[in-house]
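Input structure tokens:
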């Protein structure tokens, strides 16, 4: 039998129980008003005096930072704007001030490398059936209670196994694997900005696409620079409530909304993910507000994915999201006017498939990451010739 980690084993068993047994223990919790406890703001803090004495092999000077008086530096990559005295480590754990210079410690030092189906990102309107060479280093600027990848996002670079792979090596490996794109993913790629953008520039020169799978918590200047080489993104809109952002993620809502507007203005293809966490992000009024904001500011064409929550990390006692809630949110979003609304982590649901927004015919059928039915010709619906938003196979 294939080796399976304890974490994955728990995930599969939980998924199995919750979908196979409608009257199981989880069902008892349905309709309950979940008690949300814990602090109102879980924003991360700078780790004082935690930097290594010297830069190491995978250290690279930061691209967006300012030197301040007294040897301090302030990082300009994300809205946390960490101010670091010499010897301090950043909120995202992967950036440090050594003798008045800000270094990223994860340049060419990924801890996760995989070749994934692009549908896994999820990206449903970008080169379907293609492979994405996916990489991550350690580090995140958030502290999500429900983090799926906390073993790599909430640790320092020295606390996990890693590989050495500088940008030219990434390009070579991506091409050898038959991937069409490189996805910066799993942890928070914004925190390894220098590695990501250098690799992206090289990827463009070699005919590969760049995909950013992110929480969208980035400042405008670095984002605009990145947009010059970015082809597609999936940005997680964790909630449409700033209070929930503080309590569940340790972030703020407005900078993420700004990111969506910038990507839209820059004409980058992006899709939006919203994880529906019982008791935190399952308020229909807030979901409705989110859909109205998307429609008004970004238009009807950016695909929206509602994802089913499963108990994870610090929220391991919450039940999975009821499928009925997700179905209701999908209908609500489509009634608001968003054209392509999907459900994730709900196998067999029609929300896995793409239907033409004009004639309503089935365009793409998905069974997990497998696509048995494909009814687009170029970028058009095969039936009514409507142009479908996205980046499609030629
Ligand atoms: S990228 Fe990291 S170091 Fe820079 S501001 Fe954000 S959390 Fe701080």
């Amino acid at each position: 039998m294939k080796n399976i980690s304890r974490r994955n084993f728990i995930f599969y068993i939980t998924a199995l129980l919750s979908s196979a047994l409608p009257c199981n223990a989880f069902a008892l919790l349905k309709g309950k008003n979940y008690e949300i406890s814990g602090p109102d703001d879980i924003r991360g803090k700078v780790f004082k005096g935690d930097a290594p004495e010297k830069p190491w092999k995978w250290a690279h000077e930061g691209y967006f930072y300012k030197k301040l008086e007294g040897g301090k530096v302030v990082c300009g990559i994300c809205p946390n704007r960490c101010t670091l005295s010499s010897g301090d480590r950043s909120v995202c754990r992967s950036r440090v001030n050594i003798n008045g210079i800000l270094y990223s410690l994860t340049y060419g030092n990924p801890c996760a490398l995989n070749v994934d189906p692009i549908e896994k990102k999820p990206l449903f309107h970008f080169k379907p059936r293609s492979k994405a060479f996916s990489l991550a280093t350690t580090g995140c600027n958030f502290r999500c209670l429900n983090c799926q990848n906390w073993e790599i996002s909430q640790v320092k670079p020295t606390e996990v196994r890693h590989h050495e792979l500088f940008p030219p090596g990434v390009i070579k490996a991506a091409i050898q694997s038959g991937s069409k794109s490189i996805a910066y993913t799993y942890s928070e790629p914004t925190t390894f900005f220098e590695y990501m953008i250098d690799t992206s520039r090289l990827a463009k020169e070699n005919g590969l696409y760049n995909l950013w799978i992110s929480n969208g918590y980035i400042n405008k200047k670095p984002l605009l620079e990145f947009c010059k080489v970015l082809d597609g993104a999936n940005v997680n809109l964790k909630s449409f409530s700033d209070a929930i952002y503080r309590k569940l993620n340790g972030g703020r809502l407005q900078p993420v909304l700004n990111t969506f507007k910038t990507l839209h203005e820059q004409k980058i293809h992006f899709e939006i993910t919203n994880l529906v966490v019982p008791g935190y992000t399952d308020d229909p009024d807030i979901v409705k507000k989110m859909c109205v904001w998307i429609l008004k500011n970004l238009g009807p064409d950016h695909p929206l994915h509602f994802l089913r929550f499963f108990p994870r990390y610090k929220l391991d006692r919450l039940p999975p999201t009821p499928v009925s809630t997700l179905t209701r949110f999908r209908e609500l979003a489509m009634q608001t006017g968003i054209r392509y609304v999907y459900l994730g982590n709900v196998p067999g649901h029609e929300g896995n498939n793409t239907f033409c927004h004009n004639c309503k015919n089935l365009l793409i059928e998905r069974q997990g990451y497998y696509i048995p039915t494909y009814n687009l010709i170029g970028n058009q619906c095969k039936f009514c010739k409507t142009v479908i938003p996205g980046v499609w196979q030629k």
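The longest helix spans residues 6-20. The pocket of iron/sulfur cluster is lined by residues 75, 77-78, 80-82, 90-92, 95, 141, 191 (CB under 6 Å).
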